[in-house]
TrEMBL record:
<dbReference type="InterPro" id="IPR001296">
    <property type="entry name" value="Glyco_trans_1"/>
</dbReference>
<dbReference type="GO" id="GO:0004373">
    <property type="term" value="F:alpha-1,4-glucan glucosyltransferase (UDP-glucose donor) activity"/>
</dbReference>
<dbReference type="GO" id="GO:0005978">
    <property type="term" value="P:glycogen biosynthetic process"/>
</dbReference>
<dbReference type="InterPro" id="IPR013534">
    <property type="entry name" value="Starch_synth_cat_dom"/>
</dbReference>
<feature type="domain" description="Starch synthase catalytic">
    <location>
        <begin position="2"/>
        <end position="242"/>
    </location>
</feature>
<feature type="binding site">
    <location>
        <position position="15"/>
    </location>
    <ligand>
        <name>ADP-alpha-D-glucose</name>
    </ligand>
</feature>
<dbReference type="InterPro" id="IPR011835">
    <property type="entry name" value="GS/SS"/>
</dbReference>
<feature type="domain" description="Glycosyl transferase family 1">
    <location>
        <begin position="296"/>
        <end position="451"/>
    </location>
</feature>
<comment type="pathway">
    <text>Glycan biosynthesis; glycogen biosynthesis.</text>
</comment>
<dbReference type="GO" id="GO:0009011">
    <property type="term" value="F:alpha-1,4-glucan glucosyltransferase (ADP-glucose donor) activity"/>
</dbReference>
<dbReference type="Pfam" id="PF00534">
    <property type="entry name" value="Glycos_transf_1"/>
</dbReference>
<dbReference type="Pfam" id="PF08323">
    <property type="entry name" value="Glyco_transf_5"/>
</dbReference>
<keyword id="KW-0328">Glycosyltransferase</keyword>
<comment type="function">
    <text>Synthesizes alpha-1,4-glucan chains using ADP-glucose.</text>
</comment>
<keyword id="KW-0320">Glycogen biosynthesis</keyword>
<comment type="similarity">
    <text>Belongs to the glycosyltransferase 1 family. Bacterial/plant glycogen synthase subfamily.</text>
</comment>
<keyword id="KW-0808">Transferase</keyword>
Length: 490
């Protein structure tokens, strides 16, 4: 099959969070299984250009209709760790993708609406006719709308769309300008409740809703979260839309890329290991302490790696820090976020704890350090308020760090409590808590720390169970292929 992925992120060149990892990992898995995969991305100025091989311009003067006129674009091609990627570069005074960061601008909906329009125009004029167009999150919600309302009539009538939702919280709710800009020039038609009109704001359109309504198949990234999105407030107002389209909605669990995240070969960690020689993991604990100037003592390291966003349970991350210190452990955090208030809060905390040799807060994005933390930590916390899938717990387990997680979304599908689970003992791989408060967190973290201090052999067994958990793309890659095969035009 020929599959075109359209995404705002791709690891490692344009990564803000888990979306980037998934687009890379899934594309690779699909290729391994014999499919032809191409990825279309914006050409941001802030990408990691040294991770793109053979970047060159393949198209000059791609004219993309925009409002009454158009924007002239160049298209570039290059390989990102073997993946075939096209990068769209608009030449317009709006400077859509030359702003030093990926998101966070008042015109984000317009920027990514332009990206959608340009991607469609590129496929149309470049004669690309994939079997499947796979798009992701609100940024690409307009793709199926444009395909079925405009480009189908221009010859793209055999293409089918899969739309994967990684985060319901960000939906791209915006005004009608986006419609005029992209050539969807009948606002009264698109403002219909059955199409793009936001379920709560009559005067706004919702790009994610458009993606759901128009795609041939829609999924979120774990079975449990697909249930939450429909039946709890975690659908952020789209539950009703999902109910209408339930026959084409499901949950497919994320995997992690076993090449990128592999403690046996990882180029960012000094001491390699696997389930048969777990002792070597501790070389990384030493290296992590050295790198972050942590005291070298007989203590467990508890870590948090992730975006600093309300979604991630910020108050619980902070509480885990103080609780760990109080219990005689060490705490490491690596995080960055779009929210200035949350960022400032952690900067204050960092200054406050500056002299403490048992903790380190690193604020910023640092891929290499993330690898070392996953390998060097004993315990990783994921105390999210909601979590569509969560990669942090999967990567932590892949590196034999015991996950302590809240029972939401994909965390429910992947982490099974050591003491309270209906799983076999060898399948229990971490600790789980329910309530998003201090007591809830402590109920799990205290057991993890207690086991580390009091029962090292048992803790070691938990590490082995975590290391044995299968979080590869194999099964989920197969699931996506089945979906593609089911909907594609034969
Ligand atoms: N400061 C930093 N430095 C280095 N690396 C950092 C970092 N902050 C985060 N990362 C990395 O980014 C990824 C985060 O993935 P997650 O799945 O945990 O969260 P995210 O909320 O971004 O993704 C959304 O999409 C994914 C993919 O579908 C879902 O799993 C998830 O539930 C959903 O919220 C991990 O690879 C992590 O190591």
């Amino acid at each position: 099959m020929h599959i075109v992925m359209i995404s705002a992120e791709l690891a490692p060149v344009a990564k803000v969070g888990g979306l980037a990892d998934v687009v890379f990992g899934l594309s690779r898995e699909l290729e391994i299984r014999g499919n032809a995969v191409e990825i279309i991305l914006p050409k941001y100025d802030c990408m990691w250009y040294d991770e793109i091989w053979g970047l060159h311009k393949i198209w000059e003067n791609l004219w993309v209709p925009w409002y009454g006129s158009g924007v002239n674009c160049s298209v570039w091609f290059g390989f990102v760790h073997g993946r075939k990627c096209f990068f769209i570069e608009p030449h317009s005074p709006d400077n859509f993708f030359d702003r030093g960061s990926f998101y966070g601008f008042h015109d984000d909906p317009l920027r990514f609406a332009f990206f959608c329009k340009a991607a469609m125009e590129f496929m149309h004029k470049g004669n690309k006719r994939p079997d499947i167009i796979h798009c992701h999150d609100w940024q690409t919600g307009l793709i199926p709308v444009l395909l079925f309302e405009i480009y189908e009539r221009l010859g793209m009538n055999r293409q089918r769309v899969v739309y994967t939702i990684h985060n319901f919280k960000h939906q791209g709710i915006t005004g009608e300008a986006v419609l005029w800009a992209t050539g969807l020039c009948r606002p009264e038609y698109y403002f219909h409740h059955d199409r793009l009109r936001d379920n709560f704001n009559n005067t706004a359109i919702n790009l994610m809703k458009g993606g759901i309504v128009y795609s041939n198949y829609v999924n979120t990234v774990s079975p449990h979260h697909s249930w939450e999105a429909r039946f709890t407030d975690q659908g952020y107002g789209l539950g009703q839309t999902l109910a209408i389209h339930h026959y084409k909605f499901g949950g497919i669990l994320n995997g992690v890329d076993y090449d990128v995240w592999n403690p046996e070969t990882d180029r960012f960690i000094p001491s390699h290991y696997n389930v048969w020689n777990v002792e070597s993991k501790y070389g990384n604990k030493d290296a992590l302490r050295e790198r972050l100037w942590l005291r070298k003592e007989f203590k467990p390291i508890v870590a948090y790696v992730g975006r600093l966003d309300a979604q991630k349970g910020v108050h619980l991350i902070q509480h885990a820090l103080f609780y760990t210190l109080e219990r005689g452990g060490q705490f490491v955090m690596l995080g960055a976020g779009g929210d200035r208030g949350i960022n400032n809060h952690f900067w204050h905390l960092k200054h406050y704890l500056n002299e403490n040799a048992d903790c380190h807060l690193e604020i910023g994005f640092n891929e290499q350090l993330a690898h070392l933390i996953y390998a060097g930590a004993d315990i990783c916390i994921v105390p999210s308020l909601f979590e569509p899938c969560g990669l942090a717990q999967l990567i932590a387990m892949r590196y034999g760090s015991v996950p302590v997680v809240r029972a939401v979304g994909g965390l429910v599908d992947t982490v099974f409590d050591r003491d309270n689970s209906d799983k076999l003992p060898e399948d229990r791989n971490g600790y789980v808590f329910k309530d998003a408060d201090f007591k809830g967190l402590e109920s799990a973290l205290s057991r993890a720390l207690g086991l580390w201090f009091g029962y090292p052999k048992e803790f070691r067994r938990l590490i082995t169970n975590a290391l044995s958990f299968d979080s590869s793309w194999a099964q989920s890659g197969q699931r996506y292929i089945e979906v593609y095969d089911h909907i594609r035009c034969k």
